[in-house]
Amino acid sequence: MRRKKAAFLCLAVIAASVALIAQPDTDGKASKTGGRAVITIYLAGDSTVAAAPRSRAPRAGWGEMLDDWFDDNVMVKNMAASGRSAKSFVEEGRLSRILREMKKGDYLFIQFGHNDEKVNDPARYTEPFTSYQSYLKRYIDGARTKGATPVLITPVERRRFSADGRALNSHGLYPAAMKALGEREHVPVIDLTAKSRQRFEQLGPEQTKQLFLWLAPGEHANYPHGIEDNTHFHKRGAKEIARLVVEGIMELNLPLRHHLIRSPKREPIRDRLSDETP
């Protein structure tokens, strides 16, 4: 009788263990990490970084495309949110949520500027060399307190051109303020403002429409009347901006470069515009 009870208990324990193993991965991590401890790159930013809802496809943020560049030892967690500035992201508690999750060895990529420029919106506006820098320093200090590495990313450019086809600066003093803060605080800076402006000028006014959310009437069901958006990206544009961020990782010689699965300069830009692969 005792042997039967012992055998039954053994079978029950095995069944329970199998059931636990079979539980679905609700946060999506196990699909890439296999349960291992990995480096997490947290993204803090605005709509140019954030994941776009399906109702706005084919719009996409560059943060959606970053994970595909890394091996299984790195996971990207895109916490960026549309419409936020360096200030409002903090005041809404979004930075605090990131810091509660963050662990030693992780990264915090920080891109703000688009909404910090809104002078008539006190909930979001920051002044480049004062409040903008002071809010950004809260991200830096928070990440360092957790043993993580902060990386500043100057705001990606909008699609703006001069009459003679030169790509224009659309962010005023904010990129310079971020770079000055990075130098003062010894924080790596990816100058995405300069990188994106250079790429847009390389392509010119017409071809850059392929990167941004420019759609003719009837071209996509989500935009039956068409759209001409010079701030937000088409999926192919989000991929190209993510590529520029990866270039910055390599140029800064960040340890993350060892986890890249391919080179960001694999093929010419004009080939990429017609290629929907990452």
Outline the biggest β-sheet: 5 strands, parallel
Strand order of the largest sheet: 3-1-4-5-6
Task: Please provide the ordered H/E string of secondary-structure elements.
Answer: HHEEEHHEHEHEHEEHH
Overall average pLDDT:
89
Say how many strands there are: 8
The radius of gyration over CA amounts to: 22 Å
* Residues in helix, %: 25-40%
Number of continuous helical runs: 9
Cα end-to-end separation: 62 Å
- Quickly give the structural class: alpha/beta
Shape: globular
Low-confidence stretches: 1-30
Percent strand: 5-15%
Structure description:
38% of the residues lie in helices and 13% in strands. With 278 residues, it is of the alpha/beta class. The strands form 2 sheets. It has a 5-stranded parallel β-sheet. Helix 6 links the parallel strand 5 (149-153) and strand 6 (189-190). The longest helix is centred in the first third of the chain and has 20 residues, at 2-21. It starts with a helix and ends in a 5-residue tail after the last helix.
Task: Give a brief outline of the structure.
This protein has 278 residues and is of the alpha/beta class. Helix content is 38%, strand content 13%. It has helices at 2-21, 30-33, 86-91, 94-101, 128-145, 174-185, 192-207, 235-251, 269-273; strands at residues 39-44, 59-60, 74-78, 107-110, 149-153, 189-190, 212-215, 227-234.
Sequence-ordered SSE layout with sheet pairings:
Layout: H1 2-21, H2 30-33, E1 39-44, E2 59-60, E3 74-78, H3 86-91, H4 94-101, E4 107-110, H5 128-145, E5 149-153, H6 174-185, E6 189-190, H7 192-207, E7 212-215, E8 227-234, H8 235-251, H9 269-273
Parallel strand pairs: 1-3, 1-4, 4-5, 5-6
Antiparallel strand pairs: 2-8, 7-8
Helix pairs in contact: 5-6
